[in-house]
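so my prof wants the structure for this chain in the tokens format not the other one, which i didnt know existed until like an hour ago. anyway here's the sequence
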Amino acid sequence: MSSCVALLRQTAIERHGKHGLRLIVAALHSVRRSDPESVRSSLRDCGVFLPDQAFAQFVAQYAQKDGTVHIGALVSQVIGKLNPHRQLVLDALFDHLGLNRSGEMAKSALYRAYDASRHPDVLAGRRSAMEVTDTFMAPFGEVVSRDDIAAYYSAVSDLTPTDKAYDLLLVRSWSLDRPKSGLSDSLELTNSSTMRTTENTPHPLYQTSASVIGSRSTGCTAERSFNRTGAFTKHAPTPKPGTSLNTGTTRSIV
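here's what i got, hopefully its the right format
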């Protein structure tokens, strides 16, 4: 990563926190003409100002033959690269949200996928899950792209010191440790203390494998003659003990 891009990232995060890089990426994507002055104007609109010398290096590095700025290459550098462990978790999130297929999703769908139930403020009773979710979602536009999520969690990565903390943040915020099929169902605690969906069916996360094995049978009924529980051993004679304590010679007569 070049020094000018590193300065751009640092300035954006300092001014706008976790959403800083996402705002830069969104501004670059919205540039109608990719000439240097238009790019610089879009950065200024985000409250990010680069010194003339730094911007000159910036333009020289990403300039194309026609004098315009290569927006795609610039966006890629602004988002940056995570270490392999963090990238693996982020890729799991992309797959979870379906962004590897479509590249974008509606804000309403992102809202439904976000899970604030394990947020520290919610667990401590300081804020409700809805308040946390609304705060998180507010800066996003009506259509959220893969680059939006990548840029946001790139900034989060810069602000998160350990891989473990980054891992837990993504896993708990998006329920990556829960069955995908049950994410859309709200849960309620019944009198029997069993988690069930609002449709009163066992939620997949709290359903043991034994309870579903064989639940979809073929409908065949075995004849009663085959139901001979213990028939092979019920009438077997009782073994007689051997006469020697030597295990090599001890025998049972059946």
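also thought this was worth mentioning. The radius of gyration is 30 Å.
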